[in-house]
Amino acid sequence: MKIYNNWVKENCSSLKGKTVCISGASGSIGYYIAYYCLVLEAKLIFAVRNIERAKKSIKNLTKNFPNADIKIIYVDYEKLDSLNPFINEIKNTKVDYFVNNAGIYLTKEELIEHDLERLFCINYLSQYYLVSKLADYIKSRNGKIVSTSSISIYFKGSLDLSNFQNRNINRPLKRYSFSKKDGAYSLMYLKNKYNNFDIAHPGVTYSGLFLSIENHVPKFIAFFIRNLSKIIFMSNSKASLSIIYALTHELQYGEWVGPRGLFQFWGMPKVFKLRKKYLDNEMQKEIINKTNSLINNIGLK
């Protein structure tokens, strides 16, 4: 797998002396976000639910970066009672940058605690709660928050706010897309309010998210798709560059970063304009109000 150390050094500003916390850091794209942060001389915090997997990832990273300063903090976006302790840990460890990268992909509809749909909770609700609660603190550190979005926000289909958790939708990709659309609206709202928010997407890549495809198609088809994907899609190493670029550059309201190639599927990072609908302030407010109402009903404060 090609590593883009020189490109990162030439195109991204140094993170020396800064502490970067990355959720989902031990998985595919998250691992290379962490790798390139170390290239830029950052201190790292792995925000993960699987501590043992994180330790293995860190062991691999220290082969290339023997002096790396990496810590682990537990958080599980599915377990809401882990969020506030995680926020307190972030503040205690003086984090400067937060990469909101954890997520799931093709999963069957599943209800978890508080009658929440699991994909909605992990990909949107917990992510929004964390970044909204960390906004003032990260701003006080002159840092920023970057959330990993998805090109799927451009897929067909409009949000139905009367079905806020996107239930009873048979197509997993559509539910995934809707969770990312919720995030795009709410993060642009926060960007307008605080300015220290940006979003980026990795294009189309073979990542750990593809492992869930076996739950939706026969095994032989899943095997074919996974192996074909390794050939035609970007590597995780290259796909992670969009997130690193967004982390180290100032973007304007209404901008995001993605691959420069056809349909933003492949290529090196480039700044693009979001579609205007994501800048609709009334829609943003509707989603924020529904989100805050749900958070209050759950008792998450």
What is the makeup of the main sheet? 6 strands, parallel
The run of helices and strands is HEHEHEHEEEHEHEHHHEEH
Large-scale geometry: globular
Q: What share of residues is helical?
A: 40-55%
Number of helices: 10
Average pLDDT reading: 91
Task: Please provide the count of β strands.
Answer: 10
Structural class: alpha/beta
Strand order of the largest sheet: 3-2-1-4-7-8
Helices, strands, pairings?
Blueprint lengths: L4 H7 L7 E5 L4 H12 L3 E6 L2 H14 L5 E5 L8 H10 L4 E4 L10 E2 L3 E2 H23 L3 E5 L23 H23 L2 E4 L18 H14 L3 H4 L1 H7 L7 E5 L9 E5 L7 H18 L3
Parallel strand pairs: 1-2, 1-4, 2-3, 4-7, 7-8
Antiparallel strand pairs: 5-6, 9-10
Question: How is this structure best summarized?
Answer:
This protein has 301 residues and is of the alpha/beta class. The protein has helices at 5-11, 28-39, 51-64, 83-92, 118-140, 172-194, 219-232, 236-239, 241-247, 281-298; strands at residues 19-23, 43-48, 70-74, 97-100, 111-112, 116-117, 144-148, 197-200, 255-259, 269-273.
Give an overview of the whole structure.
This protein is of the alpha/beta class and 301 residues long. Helix content is 44%, strand content 14%. The mean pLDDT is 91. The chain is globular. α5 (118-140) runs parallel beside α6 (172-194).
Key features of this structure:
single chain, 301 residues, alpha/beta, six-stranded parallel β-sheet, two-stranded antiparallel ribbon, 10 helices, 44% helix, globular
